[in-house]
Amino acid sequence: MKQIVKNFNNLIKKTIFKVENKTNDKFHVSKFSKYLISVIVVLFIYIFYLSIPLLYDKNWIQNKIVTKLGNEFNINLDNSFNFSYRILPKPHYLIRDSKTSLAEIKTLNVFISQNNFFNKDSIRINEVVIEEANFSLLSNDLKPLYKDSENKFSKKKIKINDSNVFFKNNLNEVISIIKISNAFLLFDEKNLFNLFDLKGEIFNIPFKLKYENVLNLRKQIEINAPDLKLKVINDFFKKDENLSSGISNISILSSSINTKFNIKDQIAIFQSDGSRIYNSKIDYNGQLAINPFDLNLKINLYDYKISNLFTPNSIINEFIKSGLLFNENISVQTLVNIKSTKKDEIFNEAKLELRILNGKISFDKSVFINNNIGLMEISNSDLFLDNDKLFLSSNLSIDIKDIDKLYSFLNTSKNSRKNIRNIKLNIIYDFLSNQIELKNIKINDNDVSSQFNNIAEGFIDINSNNLTKSRKLLNELINLYDG
After folding, report:
1. What residue spans define the domains of the chain?
2. Span 363-384, pLDDT tens digits
3. Nearest 10 degrees: CA dihedral of 294, 296, 301, 306?
4. Inter-CA distances, 65 with 99, 107, 187, Å
């Protein structure tokens, strides 16, 4: 190409100077005109050069490109698709409406080297860009990510834009969908690792994922979800063909959850390693099956402020509001034991049970305990969405074992004290507005007055509630109760 341009410039100079010498002042070509003519002609020649692939036999070049895609990028296309050559934005073959065993691809751009279009046999692919594709993956399709040297990614970059990944179980049912904004994968020859980088959404939550597989040594996955203030780093170390171990670090809000684990036959057994939630120590252990997703977890929290569970930005609230738990293919059985030594706390202990099955979330049999006064138990709980709002409906039963200590805690005057042994009510909590509605209040199995219910509405705004306000309202209610 350089030689062609050089020869052409020499031709232009000889021709123009020859004409100029013959005509002297009668005919003069400025230097700018010479350069302009040269540029136009060179541009014309360059465009002609880029058009040479149009002269290739279409069937031959199509088979050539498809073969290279299979051999170099592990992209094996079915026979039915539209194939064409495009010059802009840079020379590439455009493949529309193609299919592979794992994807339906609306647009596949195959960018080629411009080095030597005169020799069609030397054509090389520089990069592949996939756009508007739908990938359907089973758990077995992800196994190549965890294999070693025989499953290297392509040495040349594969980009993926504006696509979807449908994860399916063995019954071919979709269990989750990832929307890909942009992603790429390649094998780094210098550092000898597979690299996969993705930016997208899952359950409408934006996230970034980076995966590195250092062949025969270790694998690392890093996930960032800024909306959840979540960062996850997992390091895997292969011990043998069936057993892997690793370390996981999850940072969310002001908490750090560190886990050691072993994985065998797609089942992970794990335990905590110096984890903390806010400033409180946490111990936990459990078992997780990947397909289908089944989690059995036990957590012990020490010196944790139990009232933090009810704050709008608590970890539990953030996960619930994210919608991650409303999935029919998730099964969770969790028991959280909490002990608190905080003096300004109503409850000293809590046993929180979380069950998720077939998209239903329940906190039944959860108990909050004041060692001196009594306990509160949750039953008939239901977490649900209504018009894009998240609600918790539940029955509460409050059993009082020492009424005198309750009145002492509330600073209730002796004249107002009543013989109260049990309180039952139904609550409806709106996570979006952080408001709570109290319904069907009964004391010692007796209905209360409408005036009692009106005053109880003072608890509606969780944000404005505090211990001082709660004591005042409760004393007003006790004073109204006929007893």
Report:
1. 2-50, 55-228
2. 999 999 998 899 999 999 988 8
3. 60
4. 15, 15, 21
